Amino acid sequence: METCIENQKSQWRYVLVGVLLVLLGCSDSAAPPQQAMVPTPVDAATAGTIHVAVRYHGPVPVPKAIEMSSASQCAAAHQEPATDESLLVDDGRLANALVWIKSGLEHWAFAPPASPLRFDQKGCLYHPRVAAAMVGQPVQFSNDDQDPHNVHGQPRVVNGWNFIMSKQGSSRTLSFDKPEIGIPVGCDIHPWMHAYLSVVANPYFAVTPTDGSVTLSQVPPGDYVVAVWHEKLGTQEQHVSVAPRGAATVELVLEPKS
Questions:
Q1: CA neighbours within 13 Å on the CB side: how many for 30?
Q2: pLDDT tens track of the chain, all 258 residues?
Q3: How far is CA 207 from CA 33, 75, 133, 193, 227, in A?
Q4: CA 163/CA 97 separation, integer angstroms
Q5: How far apart are CA 191 and CA 232, in angstroms?
């Protein structure tokens, strides 16, 4: 009799578990779908521009050759020795500086681009060295070298990452759910490899080319803080107002840290 009762209890347990799973399944399927983010429309008829010139004031060091003798395939990938690009200055104009609208758009919503920001590892260097993506935009790392690399990101705010890319042609894609400026990215196998990734909450950002100037287009009229970040020189910022159909100009000057 006791055995019969125990068997009945077991059968009821299975039935209850099955019912619970069905109910959970119904609950999941009945859950409202996650609503897609609706971007705030920018009125092209009233939008303006912000032209930003980034200047450098201070002594310009002679670029140093990167020592790659410990990895012969890396050295062989360069006809001329690769040089340190941590401070690129041409007649006072600063390259590889990130410019972005730091504040003034907190109540706006922007859809991230579907196309990924790409970092390539080629010749045992990161290309580009400095780049930015929007929150939610894919960020793709690829290996164009025969040498293996590991991609080691060391952020302060978003989650860190460290993964190996052992094969030529391999790639891996990440995305980030919050902003952070100047995330160091390195390769523990080749310690001279450095890159910097920034994640921005809006689409108004750019990295300065050799002439040190960028233009942020289709900016809604309003009052903003425009900032610049550089891996060695830190951050500067300035308030700027954009009138309807207006064109604002900003000059930001960075100096060596004392």
A1: 6
A2: 444 444 444 344 433 333 333 333 333 333 344 455 678 899 999 999 999 999 999 999 898 999 998 899 999 999 999 999 999 999 999 999 999 999 999 999 999 999 999 999 999 999 999 999 999 999 999 999 999 999 999 999 999 999 999 999 999 999 999 999 999 999 999 999 999 999 999 999 999 999 999 999 999 999 999 999 999 999 999 999 999 999 999 999 999 987
A3: 37, 28, 11, 19, 12
A4: 27
A5: 17
